[in-house]
Design goal:
eight-stranded mixed sheet, seven-stranded parallel sheet, globular, alpha/beta, binds nicotinamide-adenine-dinucleotide, 36% helix
Amino acid sequence: MHYTTHPERGDSLLTLTEFARFIGILQTPINQRQRHGDLKMVTIKVAINGFGTIGKRVADAIDAQEDMKVSGVTKTGPSFGCELAIKKGFPLYCTFDDEDRIDQFSKQGYSCAGGLSDLLAISDVVVDCSPGKSGAENLEKYQSADIKYIFQGGEKHELTGLSYTSSANHMENMNAKGTRVVSCNTTGLSRTLVPLFEHCGSLKVECTMIRRAADPGDSGKGPINAIKPVLKVPSHHGSDVMTVKPEIEINSLAVAVSTTLMHVHSIVADLPEGHGLTTESILQMWTNTPRVIIMNGAEDRIPTTAEVMEMARDIGRKWGDLHEIFIWEDGVKLVEDRLYYFQAIHQESDVIPENVDCIRALMGVEKDWRKSVAKTDDSISRYYSLLS
Ligand code: NAD
């Protein structure tokens, strides 16, 4: 049974009886609905605070799901991003409650439904997609609205005391009040290292993050003609993996390079004696891991991130997104107990499906991370008509 009508999903309309029941459920606080076992019948209402690079993608991914809907998105003021929200039918709210700022929207011809407090009041969970380091101020607002919250990787783990990736610690996040979906780099490292760790029981990793200097939509970041080492060593990426999988011993370095397309990770992992793996069995393990793509750089003629992104555009997700972590098959080699590999990360989109799984964890509706991942990815594929 579906509660919303959506032309891209082709959902059905409610009968009157279903509608009456639905209204009854809506009027019951969500924790009581959960206790009564009704939650699986309810569409989770998700607020998106910050409708930029990550926010607009998370909104689409939520809109694709049958068990959740976008209750509204916020913009700080009228700008080109408002057009997208209106086109998608997402109710538009102002990031602030200040009447003057709310009025600015109508002056520019955009209908604004109110301020952030109004949006939080009609939502079950808020996904904070504001620029990194806005977290502390926003957290206070979420706590006073008594709403569940998810921050992004631009915030520190200490803000929430809990972090999330689908494969590493979904269960740990079940029914939590709030958490943080780790950064694109940490998500990428977790995707390939967690299955290795689970097989081996221990893992020591040294890796270098070769980072894009700016997202394609950014005009104010760089470098544009230099390689910029992150001089705070080791970089934070390794220790960030340990916020979701503390058992993995990992250190990292990072450099920013003049590209906007992707990050590349150069990884050296020491496996414990007796691991029983080969290069081929490791590739097979990753083939069986959700949201990982393996292709051969030479044979598939996909030697660089430029071709990887071209392949992603062929897949057909909006914005040419690649939710999967990309591994070059011919760049993987186990030498005795030491594993070498490269992987590429589409920084703007690998965290998007993780936010959807994270909502299911916080709302306590799906314990099995693999089931949530399958549901999320399948719904996104249907939404963009990618399933044959
Ligand atoms: P962005 O700058 O593209 O978008 C942020 C949006 O939030 C903008 O629309 C901005 O106007 C709005 N905003 C500004 N101040 C706000 C406030 N106080 N409250 C709410 N909204 C506010 O940023 P982004 O790239 O989407 O990054 C969002 C978060 O996601 C950050 O924590 C970032 O570190 C993380 N992240 C970004 C990427 C990436 O590659 N862009 C990848 C993974 C995680």
